[in-house]
Fold this protein.
Amino acid sequence: MAKQKSQQYDTVVKKNLQEILPRLVNELLGTDYESFTPASVEIPTTLNKKSDLIFETGPNGKQLLHVEFQTSNDPVMHHRMHLYAALLYYQRPAIDSIKQLVFYVGDAKMRMKASLEKPGLSFGYQIVDLRDFSYQKFLESRHIEVALFALLADLQSETPASVIRRIAMRLASEVHGRERLASFLVDLEILAQLRNFETIVQEIRRDIAMFEFDITKVSLFREATEAGEKLGMERGMEKGMEKGMEKAVLTMNKNGLPTHQIAQMLDLPEAGVQRIIDENMPKKAKASVKKTTRKK
């Protein structure tokens, strides 16, 4: 099971970060790599471990950027990285230098060594713990793929549900196409497993399904409409449509979307959206609002 999860995670990383990873490295670490070309080198499969990502970052392929992702602490990671570096230099003897980075995304505190010192040997590489960065660094990236990784960063004073909801809402507003959005949300759930947040993502995925897609294809909307059709009355169909739309409005409101944005996404009058929210407000909340209004 653990191996399967690791393979799923590797797939998500490579699918979402392969093209933009070097730019992300520049963004996070302040480096200034200008060009990136996937290098035609690979760690031999006899080691039972393929290197994650290797790029040529300098003119004429003289510099390599080698990136690994770790979901757990490996007590011999420094030995592995040293071996990888030696093999890369062996395969490409003309290169000037290799920059090696390990991105640590595990849940436990990072405990791996970043250097190897022996008589006649001095070796080092860089470990980057995603929790050394604010989640906002990822969420505000101009690359939507990077936003997924905000849940693995430092959440600061935010709750996991709050940050994941913000990631999901950004996906819902910027990713076009039902299948593409669904793919991103599945990737988000796989990443969430690294922090045991998957149940939060599953709940939010269900909520998004209520309003992101064509409302006529939403199951609750369709069921309500079909109920109206069975009644054989036009009024019944209208009632079904109203129920489906009302459910979408309340779901979006629950997830923190402002009234004007809900109205825009569902093509409804803002006053109508506010009326649905007010009518479904719990009695205690209504009483509190009235009490506050009287005091004013």
Remarks:
- The beta strands are 37-38, 53-56, 63-70, 97-104, 115-118, 121-124, 126-129.
- Residues 40 and 54 are 8 Å apart (CA to CA).
- The radius of gyration is 25 Å.
- Residues 234-254 form the longest helix (21 residues).
